[in-house]
């Protein structure tokens, strides 16, 4: 068992000093994850990686931790999900204030390209499509969240979800096509 997993177990058991020990152990990985998430944002983005890390960390191990941790991969997946929610909330606030809240047309050849050109509009479109996918097939939506927002490999995501690599491959291919379709349909001009 690695040091992070041991400290996570201590946090789960209510050790008040464990949360203080956890941040130095996970900070650099969380900062890289946050920097990756913010890399596609526009140049005027007001949220910095350090602020994103701190806000996500507080959601994860604050006074009322949301869930027990099943090891390192689970913690980082939850951290990525917390960062996703923070970024979505930030994008919604920003989107409401700009251009009357209108969505713009989104051109994508592949859903993975969103990571490279992601802005507030694209992030909101992806979140809306993911919410629809969650209603249609929660497992496939969770796989997308783990891969896209947590940066997990297909093998890591499959392990965390308790599915085989082959099933993860099929789910990933289906989810990418489904999201692409949902996002392009949602952005077509009437």
Give an account of the 3D structure.
There is one protein chain. The chain has 190 residues and is an all-alpha fold. It folds into two domains: 1-100, Rna Polymerase Sigma Factor, Chain: A (Orthogonal Bundle); 103-190, Orthogonal Bundle (Arc Repressor Mutant, subunit A), CATH 1.10.10. The chain is built from nine helices and no strands. α2 (18-39) packs across α4 and α7 packs across α9 (165-186). It is globular, with a radius of gyration of 17 Å. The N and C termini lie far apart (56 Å).
Task: Quickly describe the structure.
The chain folds into 2 domains: 1-100, Orthogonal Bundle (Rna Polymerase Sigma Factor, Chain: A); 103-190, Arc Repressor Mutant, subunit A (Orthogonal Bundle), CATH 1.10.10.
Which CATH-level-2 architecture of the largest domain?
Orthogonal Bundle
> What would you call the structural class?
mainly alpha
**Helix count from the secondary structure assignment:** 9
Radius of gyration in whole Å, from Cα?
Answer: 17 Å
Outline the biggest β-sheet: none
* CA(first)-CA(last) distance: 56 Å
CATH topology heading of the largest domain: Rna Polymerase Sigma Factor, Chain: A
Oligomer: single chain
Number of strands: 0
Topology pattern, helix = H, strand = E? HHHHHHHHH
- CATH class category name of the largest domain: Mainly Alpha
């Amino acid at each position: 068992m690695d040091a992070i997993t041991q400290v996570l177990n201590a946090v789960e058991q209510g050790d008040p000093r464990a949360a203080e020990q956890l941040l130095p152990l996970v900070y650099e990985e969380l900062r890289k994850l946050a920097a990756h998430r913010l890399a596609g944002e526009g140049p005027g983005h007001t949220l910095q990686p350090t602020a994103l890390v701190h806000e996500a960390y507080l959601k994860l191990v604050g006074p009322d931790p949301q869930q027990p941790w099943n090891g390192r991969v689970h913690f980082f997946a939850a951290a990525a999900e917390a960062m996703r929610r923070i970024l979505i909330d930030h994008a919604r606030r920003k989107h409401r204030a700009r251009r009357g809240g209108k969505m713009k047309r989104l051109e994508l050849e592949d859903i993975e390209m969103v990571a490279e050109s992601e802005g507030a509009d694209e992030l909101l479109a992806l979140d809306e499509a993911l919410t629809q996918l969650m209603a249609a097939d929660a497992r496939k939506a969770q796989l997308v969240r783990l891969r896209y927002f947590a940066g997990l490999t297909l093998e890591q995501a499959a392990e965390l979800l308790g599915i085989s690599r082959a099933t993860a491959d099929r789910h990933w291919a289906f989810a990418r096509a489904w999201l692409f379709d949902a996002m392009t349909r949602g952005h077509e001009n009437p």
